[in-house]
Specification:
The chain is an alpha/beta fold. The protein has a single domain (about 5-260), classed as HUPs (Rossmann fold). The chain is about 30% helix and about 25% strand. It has 7 helices and 11 strands. The strands form 2 sheets. The protein has a 9-stranded mixed sheet with strand order 9-8-7-10-6-1-4-5-11, sandwiched between helices. The protein has a two-stranded antiparallel sheet with strand order 2-3. Helix 2 (about 75-85) crosses helix 5.
């Protein structure tokens, strides 16, 4: 009989999707002071999918473990995931570089941390958001699969598991249609927006989440170097769009396009 699913779901604390990001005064990062944070929407979908897999069959899933890498404030993000139905959570606490800000992790560093955690957890399935809405890198899942030497199915819009064989089938949207992949465990899946709609969190679930097991580890505990390899020199907002104009004839339109260098 195939092994039961031991699922790890990485989650990230990001600026709330309803907030318009602003560049800080130094022009080298997004302003985070006084800004509302929440669970990354793609990560929320990943947690929901893990919970739905468990609900689909009482014998399919053994455990659902959340993991997040960030400051101590990321514990609120983990509690949000626990309230959705995950069993336990681990915070990989990132040291602060000053009194107010933690080190910003690059996708490769996150993938290395997750690799070490997945190995430590004896997981056989990772379900994670395809990207975070703050940096939109869409790299960590692919890097993690490569580091683990596991199969991967990205941008999933449907996930099914054959309990008899342990084979996971994933549908993903591609240009012009849908692609369907099948792979045995272990596997890394990254989730797209159309995979599911996360459930509304009830007050009683929020209260239960406070009693669920959580722990903290450090990058040193996992034996991972998280030193930055990239430096952001500057950030700038895109130029504001100007209003369009009207022309009286086709000849005038062509002349205007030539003037603008469009033709």
């Amino acid at each position: 009989m195939p092994p039961r699913l031991n699922i790890v779901v990485p989650v990230k604390r990001v600026i709330d999707f309803a907030i318009k990001p602003r560049i800080n005064a130094s022009k080298n990062a997004i302003e985070t002071n006084g800004v509302k944070f929440s669970l990354n929407p793609f990560c929320e979908i990943a947690v929901e999918e893990a919970v739905r897999l468990r609900e689909s069959s009482k014998d399919l899933v053994e455990s659902i473990t959340l993991v997040s890498a960030g400051s101590a404030k990321a514990q609120d993000t983990l509690r949000s995931g626990l309230a959705l139905g995950a069993d336990k959570a681990t915070l990989i606490e990132i040291p602060a570089i000053d009194d107010s800000k933690s080190l910003e992790l690059e996708p490769l560093a996150v993938a290395k941390l997750l690799k070490a955690f997945v190995k430590k957890s004896n997981a056989n399935l990772v379900i994670m958001g395809k990207q975070a809405i703050d940096d939109d890198s869409n790299q960590t899942g692919q890097m993690l699969a490569g580091l683990l030497n596991w199969s991967q199915a990205t941008n999933a819009s449907k996930v099914t598991v054959d309990e008899a064989s342990g084979v996971v089938t994933v549908s993903r949207e591609v240009d012009g249609g849908t692609e369907t992949l099948s792979a045995p465990l272990p596997l890394v899946i990254t989730t797209d927006l159309r995979l599911n709609t996360p459930r509304y969190t009830k007050l009683q679930d929020i209260m239960k989440a406070k009693k669920k097991k959580t722990e903290k580890v450090s990058p040193e505990d996992l034996g991972v170097d998280i030193s930055s390899r990239l430096e952001i020199l500057s950030l700038s907002e895109p130029p504001k769009r100007t209003g369009g104009g009207k022309v009286d004839s086709v000849d005038a339109l062509i002349g205007k396009l030539k003037e603008l260098g469009a033709i």
